[in-house]
């Protein structure tokens, strides 16, 4: 289900900057400071301990299984290849919840009390922003497989935050282009009111308007709401020929309410995003989502990787961000080996180096062999050619376009 349909790869360094010149001007100094801090990093204890901060509960819980599976598979393969610095990697799992709870704060406290060197997560940008200061302030590296907020590009993260997913700038553009490519010109946008929804809506709007289309309706709603009938009626009254729905779990409420007003996916084409591109086979009547489309960052991981995941984790209904989670873990391990130390600051100092600029390698074992031979490496992962820039962002990425079938599950169009 992760084969790319109509994927795009764009260089992100040109579009991932801050909102003003002052912020951009401060970035080199922040990077230099982070490098100085990393150079004076404390020594680790010899055992790389990786903590996960991923959604077992909350509005993004459907992303949890593939993300946990990706980390688990990576740790298994790392240890089968000899581990890191002579010891097996230790994995400690925790729940990130969502912003409606305090679970993430509690989980981070627990992980830090167990001396983790790296945290993989969170999936939600808002959740990561609520705990990033605590994580990097403790000298622990944080790598998210799914954060897409543009805020992280210029965030003061002490050189310890990285992500293997692209920013919302790219996905928003692909989303808008997909709407235009299907011939729709008058578009309604319903989006949750937070940084995620606002950025995606902004970028999709820009792509649509640049392509000659018109946004006939746009509304940002409270994601905690339970009755969306008013905003649905307002959107319907503008007679759009397509609807972009940028949402999380509240999609399960919005779609039935829209369908009851003859404004569902069977009445007007719908376009979703990674936050609500989910399996709805158990939630909606058959045919509810037929023909609806959605965007999801990530390259085709291939059938072999999916099978390895399921052999380790069990049956998965989604593979969203599994490859990014796997690659995040592999990169942390390689950075520790390159640094010769497992502390978070040492790992952070080598993340950019092991992701690009050296000899290409595609497996942990192959990359370790090159490092042992004294070579610089360029790890190309299952989620694509991840190459971090100085801000910890990937410089290239792919976004897939998927389509729903009669059973309310999605796949790449044939």
The major pleated sheet works out as: 8 strands, mixed
- The succession of helices and strands, N to C, reads EHEHEHEHEEHEHEHEHEEHHHEHEEE
Subunit organisation of the chains: single chain
Terminal residue distance: 11 Å
Strand content: 15-25%
Q: What structural category arises from helix and sheet content?
A: alpha/beta
Radius of gyration: 21 Å
The best one-word shape is elongated
Mean pLDDT: 89
How do the helices and strands line up, and which of them pair or pack?
Elements lengths: L7 E4 L9 H19 L9 E5 L10 H17 L9 E3 L10 H11 L4 E4 L3 H13 L3 E4 L16 E3 L4 H14 L4 E7 L2 H16 L3 E8 L7 H9 L4 E5 L4 H9 L10 E3 L20 E5 L5 H11 L8 H18 L4 H12 L3 E3 L2 H9 L4 E3 L16 E9 L5 E2 L3
Parallel strand pairs: 2-3, 2-4, 4-5, 5-6, 7-8, 7-9, 9-10, 10-11, 12-13
Antiparallel strand pairs: 1-14, 11-14, 14-15
Helix pairs in contact: 1-11, 2-9, 2-10, 3-4, 5-6, 10-11, 10-12
